[in-house]
Amino acid sequence: AGVLAAHKITASSPDTDLPTVSGLRKMGVNFTVSNKDTVKSSDVLFLAVKPPIIPFILEEVGPDIEPRHIVVSCAAGVTISSIEKKLSTFCPTPKVIRCMTNTPVIVREGATVYATGTHADVEDGKLLEQLMASVGFCTEVEEDLIDAVTGLSGSGPAYAFTALDALADGGVKMGLPRRLAVRLGAQALLGAAKMLLESEQHPGQLKDNVCSPGGATIHALHFLESGGFRSLLINAVEASCIRTRELQHLADQEEISPAAIKKTLLDKVKLESPSLSVASASKVSLFTSKSKKN
Amino acid sequence: GVALGAWHRVAMEESELWVGFVGAGRMAGGLVRGLLQAGKVPASNVLASAPSDKNLDAWRELGCRTTHCNLEVVYRSTLVFLATKPHILPGVLEEIRPAVGSQHIVVSLVAGVTIQTLQRLLPPGTKVLRIMPNLPCVVQAGAMVFSRGSNAGDEEAALLKSLLSSCGLCEEVPESYIDIHTGLSGSGVAYVYLFAEALAEGAVKMGMPGALASRIAAQTLLGAAKMLLETGEHPAKLRGDVCTPGGTTIYALHQLEKGALRATVMDAVEAATNRACDMAKD
């Protein structure tokens, strides 16, 4: 998006074999294996590790956190208060912002929300918003809504991919080649979403506009309704939101000794399947950044 | 549109209009109540026929005149409503056919009998219209659609619309919409009664007395319908307006969606419409 120069971004990961690491290097991002180095050379620090690892990362980098740092956590289910609590042993007034985004930031059509912690100023929030708005939609919310956001737009792309796969199947069943079916399905959803975002009209009205009396579309919609399409989507958002809360609850309860942590951390990184490692590392590549204050 | 001249003639004709009803059942009764309430036609200008006095008593109480002779209704009326049961109509048409002339406007309320059939059984050139009302015409909150036959013109359509708007919503449509109207609104009234009953039952389950629950259920439906009609907003928008985030309404709506209520209602309208089509073919 051209918001930050690559050389101002530093990313760190214990595992340097990951494909995302070389991808980052090619972009011109500074890479290091030391999380501490990342902290020292950054003003805005994105924590983009898996949620169970957050407490250990905080332990590790805590001593290096200074008042200027804005700590942004993207970890699902990790509360601002839990991060502030961890950091307060090192820094009296840590600036913490919690954010929830989604994968389409990759194509700059992300959906991001953030909630500011006790010591984060309005300008800190605005800075994050500026950064994240360059990769999609970004707005501030109350922290207690973040689980709902996870259920809707966090998991949302997965619902869309599932729908697109099925729509393509429908196209193939009716005679379309697969590639064309996928392309058309994706474009249909993209176009519909764009229409909705640019229109003042209610989606129900936009739907009506497509349904000519006795026509093809209304017949198809009847099938969707019969299958409880709407309730399935409501169920999905609800389930994802509830699970997020569950995971957060579980995380709050877990206690592991620091010595065991370091070992399991490395073990986890090595043992995880390649796709999973790529996922966590890709978060590192996207989010660990450094910006010089004006 | 309707020519200005036609409207002028309509205004003149209404007060001089002699209105007849062949068949005096509930639907006919609803229409006449609407007409009389709105002062469209004086009761003394109305003549209704029926085989027995059972229904006719109520008509006389309204000030209408009654008879057991269908032919008399046709001789003494300009606007003749046919309101018999479907299986009786062919016989009635054969009976009154000799008395039907070019001055008559024949309007059929009979379910499932097409304009084609009516025109076949009446003298050639007869002005025929077909109307499908619904029960709330009885309380002047009906929904009616009508279509015109080959010889009915703008004047007749304007007259009918003007008269029947006193009973509720009245719109001219292509004849193919009439069966759909049956599925939507003719039978639709029953769907609403079912829904109202279920709403009240839910309330009773939660501890409210039945009579109160029923009244509130009815008022809720009335109020919601009124808002729909008066705001002109899309129902989805109005629905959204009621749903506060995480509130009671959205929880309830989720239950309705789980039960695929929308699809079930669509199925109902479809079933009634198809049945109307099938019955018309018989």
Automatic annotation (TrEMBL), chain A:
Gene3D superfamilies: NAD(P)-binding Rossmann-like Domain (3.40.50.720), ProC C-terminal domain-like (1.10.3730.10). Its main location: mitochondrion. One of its GO terms (biological process) is cellular response to oxidative stress. NADP(+) binds at S13, A48, V49, K50, P51, C74, A75, A76. The keyword NADP applies. Residues 143-247 form the Pyrroline-5-carboxylate reductase dimerisation domain. PROSITE patterns: P5CR. One of its GO terms (cellular component) is mitochondrion. Keywords: Acetylation, Amino-acid biosynthesis, Mitochondrion, NADP, Oxidoreductase, Phosphoprotein, Proline biosynthesis. It comes from the Eukaryota. The keyword Electron transport does not apply. It is found in: Mitochondrion. NADPH binds at N35. Its EC number is 1.5.1.2. Pathway: Amino-acid biosynthesis; L-proline biosynthesis; L-proline from L-glutamate 5-semialdehyde: step 1/1. Coiled coil: none annotated. GO terms for molecular function: pyrroline-5-carboxylate reductase activity. InterPro entries: 6-PGluconate_DH-like_C_sf, NAD(P)-bd_dom_sf, P5C_Rdtase_cat_N, P5CR-like_CS, P5CR_dimer, Pyrroline-COOH_reductase. Residues 7-77 form the Pyrroline-5-carboxylate reductase catalytic N-terminal domain. It catalyses: L-proline + NADP(+) = (S)-1-pyrroline-5-carboxylate + NADPH + 2 H(+); L-proline + NAD(+) = (S)-1-pyrroline-5-carboxylate + NADH + 2 H(+). PANTHER family: PYRROLINE-5-CARBOXYLATE REDUCTASE. Belongs to the pyrroline-5-carboxylate reductase family. This is Pyrroline-5-carboxylate reductase. It comes from Setophaga kirtlandii. The gene is Pycr2.
Automatic annotation (TrEMBL), chain B:
Its main location: cytoplasm. Residues 19-112 form the Pyrroline-5-carboxylate reductase catalytic N-terminal domain. One of its GO terms (molecular function) is pyrroline-5-carboxylate reductase activity. Homodecamer; composed of 5 homodimers. GO terms for biological process: L-proline biosynthetic process. This is Pyrroline-5-carboxylate reductase. Keywords: Amino-acid biosynthesis, Cytoplasm, NADP, Oxidoreductase, Proline biosynthesis. Oxidoreductase that catalyzes the last step in proline biosynthesis, which corresponds to the reduction of pyrroline-5-carboxylate (P5C) to L-proline using NAD(P)H. Proline is synthesized from either glutamate or ornithine; both are converted to P5C, and then to proline via pyrroline-5-carboxylate reductases (PYCRs). PYCR3 is exclusively linked to the biosynthesis of proline from ornithine. Belongs to the pyrroline-5-carboxylate reductase family. It catalyses: L-proline + NADP(+) = (S)-1-pyrroline-5-carboxylate + NADPH + 2 H(+); L-proline + NAD(+) = (S)-1-pyrroline-5-carboxylate + NADH + 2 H(+). It comes from the Eukaryota. NADPH binds at N70. NADP(+) binds at A83, T84, K85, P86. It is found in: Cytoplasm. Residues 175-277 form the Pyrroline-5-carboxylate reductase dimerisation domain. Pathway: Amino-acid biosynthesis; L-proline biosynthesis; L-proline from L-glutamate 5-semialdehyde: step 1/1. Its EC number is 1.5.1.2. Transmembrane segments: none annotated. GO terms for cellular component: cytoplasm.
